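LOG
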Amino acid sequence: MKALFAGHDLVESLLPLDECILVMRDTFSMLARGEAILPLRGGLREPDGKGVLAWMPAYLDKERLIGGKFITVFGGNRNTRFESHQGAVLLFESESGRLLAILDAGSITAIRTAACSAVATDLLAAADSSDLAILGSGTQAYMHLRSMRAIRNIKRVRVWSRNTEHARNFASRASRESEIPIEHVSSVAEAVTGAHIICTVTSSTSPVLLGRWLTPGAHINAVGASVPGFRELDSEAVAKSKLYTDRRESLFNEADDFRIPRSEGVIQDSHLVGEIGEVLTGKAPARQSKSEITLFKSLGLAVEDLAAAYRVYTKAKLKKQGVWMEFNKERV
């Protein structure tokens, strides 16, 4: 039987952002209904600490899929031609265990992460939100600019990054491409003061967004810190916000944005209002007033990768696109 091998370009062409947003809505809902199995992610660090191999397995009941994402994380690639995160999504059918596809993990992750933030923002941000702050200037900064514009009428953007040159380049390039004012600012406070939507997409190990800077009514997508040891929000920012996440087990075990304020006694597990899927299925409330500050703590889930990968696989099969190679030997 043949399996699909899909690189970056094919994934991008078959998984447009607006389509992925709909796929992620369905995926969150399936998760809330218990139609998925999702162990916590695992990892292996090299002896010299240079790199990490991480794996995220999952099962989706509706499509009878099993598989996961395997990625390497090499922070030293920052100034090279290689991305810091590289890897593959492996997609199997669960009847016989046959491999269906091997897909580029970087492009799937970039698109589905921003799509998940779009779903959360559409549910939680005020309908008239138009002022966007982006903390970070890498791939997810670009993707979140696109995803926020897909669900809100964004009229102003401020961007901050520890790398000033990257932030300036981001603002210049994104302004040309989006034809809206995108301003590089020199401090986080300047970026977020008065912002309706804030997206934190950094690789910070300590808080960059402080609660005292938040404006009533703001919505935050906290995206960059998805494993222990990384943190973007201080305890006050979390405590002041109505907290939502993609999956509570991941939040309680992997998110230092949540675990540290909890260990300080600032919040408890009950501070979590619900998962995004629970909002979609009516099990948890969304925003209740215009003045509330809402926070979506994104961890990134393997079910999101599988659902996105399956959409690419089905479209590639229908359109007869991509590279298909004999992989699974059948018994005679």
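LOG (cont.) second protein
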Amino acid sequence: MTYQRIQPFPPAHSYDFPELRALSSVWQERKESLEQDGVYRDFIKRLQREWAIETGIIERLYSWDRGVTEVLIEQGIESSIIAHRGGVSQRDAEHIKALIDDHLGIVEGLFGYIKGEYTLTEHFIRGIQAQFTAHQDYTEAVTESGAFIRVPLQKGEYKTFPNNPRRPDGEVHSYCPPEWTKDEMESLIRMYREAEGSHTPEVKAAWLHHRFTQIHPFQDANGRVARTLSSLAFLREGLFPLVVRDSDRKEYIGALELADAGNLAPLVGLFVRRQRDAVLKALGLEQQVQQGKYVEQIVASALEVLRNRFAKEQQKVSVAYEYAGKLLKYAEQKFREMASSLDSQLRPLTPPQVSHQYQSRSDHADNTSEQRHYFQKQIVELANHFDYFANFERFRAWVRVTLTTDEDFDYVLSFHGYGAGDTGILAASAFTCVKARKEEGGTEPVALHPAATEFFQFNYAESFETIEKRFAEWLEASKAIALAEWKRSLQAGV
């Protein structure tokens, strides 16, 4: 595989992610009231620690389970925690702490850097690489015979020898030849500057990351520098550093390989999901902030809101609940169609010796129904699985398909609020369960399984047309997962 010169940005609007646009809009409206608060500053500190830790894990500079990372995020980067929780010697723990501290200094510096006169330059990029490798004196290299050797690490300088890796299948992946590196880096920066104002931050971040890794200009730390440049692209737009977790590694590498083949969409999509998660968590801070204020401040703030914004804000936020009602009707129709189709196929399969009819049926509860509180335990459990707070105060509704064979199998879709308070952000989640008979009579849901790889969120700032399109795609994927789980449960009962 020979090296191909980096290509310019794709045409503007090639990749459209209205979900992130809408969430970003909501965040920009509310961030000013949060930025000076201690809760928000603590959130940013934790996010910076996570970035500093995960960017080294993804490069295999050190490794441990997610639990260790979470302790370090909450308690700070301490060598004693690394040694005890990570199962390494104190000496190794001190070295790992030094590496993470280098990473932490970089991400903290990015927040200050974007407040000044932001210009992406070769000098800045070389400086970032030097900071990343401040406590790395050597790196691995491969000889022509395939042997691994340790060589002194060049810091802040472009590579002078090829750094082309050999894949497991024996193919050599060619990065930019050393003699072209400076020219390619100049092209990278020129193309990036020319794209200012014409592309969304997620496209700029993904393009910059991929084209930089194509060049692979340094002897080491190329991946860490690439994620730093992507983080800068997001931070400049008022968003958050790009955290790629170890759990993302397979998808992340696969997306980079697809980008090598000319398809940047999977990498953009991964970056969008990571930003979406960060924005949702930041928006969830509002309730914590309000609870942490003194009573007098809360009252004064509330009165001010009532005077100037309450009616207008409520009207704007209420649009999200109108959207929820429309999505519920859409889901009802799809579930009825699904139940009707399955019912006609199940009934003829009823064995003669079975006392009840094999069948399929659908039902639902809207926000005014007395049955809207059904499945609360399962919905909360699923929300915890996806790390968010399911809010039932203003809106809750569900739709269900029940498949009756030897037992009742439920596929349930729920609509409810996202996070504390009336934020105008709602969520939909889907799960399957089996109705098990209780000794004292009746049934209870057991064998809960998510029927989607992620929950669906929507808000007042996004147009209903784009929400409906995203929801239709999400629902189709959810139905496939639910039916696959039904098939698995039937096979288990054979």
